[in-house]
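[retry 2/3] 2-furoate---CoA ligase: previous attempt timed out, resubmitting with same input.
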Amino acid sequence: MLDLGTSFLASVARDPGAIAIVDGDLRLTYRNWLGRIGAVVAAFDRLGLKPGDHLVSVLQNRFEAATLHWACQFAGIVITPINWRSKADEIDFALENAEAKALVFEEVSAEAVRGATRATGLLTIAVGTSLDGAVPFAALLAEAAPEPMPRAGADAWSIMLYTSGTTSRPKGVPRRHRAERAAGIAHVAQNLYRRGEVTLGVMPLYHTMGVRSLLAMSVIGGTFVCLPRYDTKSALALIERERVTNLYLVPTLYHDLVHDPAFAATDVSSVRKLGFAGASMTDGLLKKLDAEFSPELFVNHYGSSEIYTFTIDQKAILKPGSAGRAGINQMVRVVRLGAQSAAEIAAEGEEGEIIALLAGDESFEGYWRRPEADAKSLRDGWYFTGDTGFMDADGDLFVTGRVDDMIITGGENVSPVEIESCLSLHPAVSEVAVVGLPDEKWGKIVVAFVKRAAPVEASELDAWCRTSGLANFKRPRRFVFVAEIPKSPVGKLLRRQLVAGEYVAEADAAHSAA
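[retry 2/3] 2-furoate---CoA ligase: success.
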């Protein structure tokens, strides 16, 4: 298996004149970009960075972030990207946890960096802004340098991503060059990407989806079109201007894209392949996307930072809710809820915990200095994902939620995803999230939080559920109409905020169903 630096050199040799990256008015071919990358590698040497060092970046999706990523691959430095919205204490945690030797930031993250105590005295690099003692990123590019030579082998660490840390401090997920490249190649194969594809680089480069898009384009001489911060009108303008051929987004971003008033007037005919990951997609959104784009390929990709691909379904529209079958580098199982062994396989149709084989080429090998997390998640050579799901009679996987999201009401297990898919098909429902809230009689009751697209009352939505075939015990017992559904920066539903009451309700707040 090639290391990523050698992989990039092979791409330059294959497609030297192809456009590799676009950021606003900046357009670089693979040959031109290699020169900029080489300059940054040489600057790392001058600054005293060495193979194995961690470099923490707090950047949006821009040319500098992508260039840093590739320069680190050549230099053997472990790129450690974190959310550009991170607060000072979160930056301090990453710097300490990774034992970082350098920090790169921009204007949007500068205030948090100023407040980070561990940034004091550390090598800092400023992109498009300034800070006392910080090296301007432009200075890294100022001196010409020879073509960079890879200094890391396939078994060296490439990147360390951090999990979202919804219940505790984020966990570092270190990944090797070989695992990253295997994931990039699998992404090309499973999405049927052709040479010269153009993708919208909007999923953040601190998230596995963004990194995979970047690497996949390099493998096929494709173009990565930077969109630093998601904005639907900017996204639509770039799709039309750059003739984007594939989109790989979380469902929330697709929802915003097709519901933007500018969508109808935008030429999106160049987009022939749609891929989504990060969350389940409702039946209603699947149908709308299929109608608007008529894609050649519509892929549901189910995976994680730890093991990139679990399963894929390349015909998502034909079987709504299905995550398909194991990816080309993987095997998956569903084991009984609470299982301690990978041998406790759930029956067909039985909801359980999804587990994935750790021996796959894309797999990580354990969390960064978190033995207790390893003990919980890594067993018998399998990764216990914490996700719930079941296998149907065809052998297709359906992901129903998180073990922690399961609603136990009156002794029955209820998955939020099934109810959300049902309600999403109602024309007056824009977005919906379902959680369990405490109840003296039932333990928990099913509550649906709804963002309305048109006037509708709880009684009408309850009738919709009654006639949809949804089991009676799964029907929401309460509907709450909200201004917005809380989401993470990459579009995942934040159910815990709804449970905690952290949402903005409409003026008429809560409505109860009979």
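[retry 2/3] 2-furoate---CoA ligase: Residues 30-47 form the longest helix (18 residues).
[retry 2/3] clearing retry counter.
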